[in-house]
From TrEMBL, chains A, B:
PROSITE patterns given in the database record: HTH_TETR_2
InterPro entries assigned to the protein according to its UniProt record, in alphabetical order: Homeodomain-like_sf, HTH_TetR
Highest taxon of the lineage: Bacteria
DNA-binding region (UniProt annotation): 36-55
Record-given protein name: TetR/AcrR family transcriptional regulator
Record organism: Paracoccus benzoatiresistens
Keyword line: DNA-binding
Boundaries of every HTH tetR-type domain copy: 13-73
Pfam families: TetR_N (PF00440)
Amino acid sequence: MAGKSTLRDRRRLQTSREIQRAALTLSLRHGHDLVTTEMIAAEAGISQRTFFNYYLNRDTAIVGQAPCFDEETVAWFRASSGPLLADLLQALRQLLNNSDLDRGTSQLIDRLLGTAPELLPIFYGSLRRLRDQIADLAVTRVGEDARSDAELLAEAISHALGDTFRIWANDDAMSADSIVDVAAAKLQVLRGYLAQV
Amino acid sequence: MAGKSTLRDRRRLQTSREIQRAALTLSLRHGHDLVTTEMIAAEAGISQRTFFNYYLNRDTAIVGQAPCFDEETVAWFRASSGPLLADLLQALRQLLNNSDLDRGTSQLIDRLLGTAPELLPIFYGSLRRLRDQIADLAVTRVGEDARSDAELLAEAISHALGDTFRIWANDDAMSADSIVDVAAAKLQVLRGYLAQV
DNA sequence: GCAAATATTGCACAGTATGCATCCTTGTGC
DNA sequence: GCACAAGGATGCATACTGTGCAATATTTGC
């Protein structure tokens, strides 16, 4: 379905993962600030120049490429008329179903974030494309005039999702399907806090 | 009260503002990606090396230094026992009262963000210290076990505050005192969205 | 197989950011 | 006032980041 099957595309995906893995293991071994793009390239078996063909900068290599709604899901959302948050969460469920998450890599990311908190903005920043997409979807419901409100909602959703992602990485008993449910529960906790005025 | 009155400290504050102003005007004139730290230093009348004594990197010079709770406010919060969100908002009111905001600079920031959306993460990132402080305050109420929930709340609050800050910059009729109130209203809109399940 | 499309690489180069030594300015104690 | 300590400003050297360009290699479609 989402499978691009040409040799070129398979290689591209594999190389990007090898780079990420190299960046993660080196950062865990030496500390993120002591790892250079040259070291990462060498570990991944490519040239430094090629590294920059795959990732815009050294930091984003660690968190990999952000997931993204496919057209099908966007179309479903536009056609649906359920409650806003419920539909957004459902779209996210479809997104996570289509993307095959690698728990091993996620664990490495989580462990690195524990030792290098300065990377937290980069981790949450990696969800930016997704966040923007969520905001765009929400805007189709609440109207362009309320875009900044839609962005605030999208920020909260993607943040909760990021947190849950880290929980999932470290809990082998937790299925990928429940990620969105746990994130939704976190959002309801937030709603409770916001009611305490 | 917050006044450090030695010549050294007054100079330091003034220089940091001159650097920020130089960074803003140059970025608005030439486009942010065409402005170098050397240009900023020259415009501010200092050396490039001195630029890096004031700001950690080129981007943060644009948004200036983040505000920060003073000890007094923190002590007040710890002693208070009102509803969580209400107390957090009250602490923010005190924070904004103590810090003298410069609407002119804020306007330049807002205009630049309009032309260079890639700076938005840096703008919201500048609130990070404040966000962490808010989370710490919230943790004293909800407990360490719920830290990630407190951080989600802090993220929402600081995001809403950032949005409101930009509104205030462009609305001369809006008083600084009402910033927190408008942000609180945004948070209630968010609460409404979160209830739509 | 061949030609077009696409990837990889080396190289040059501008810019970022830091450490260090030195010089200059400001605060302090007398 | 003056001398000395503390803290800032600067120049210089240097490691690293990230990009453009041209050359080379690989994949794809036919």
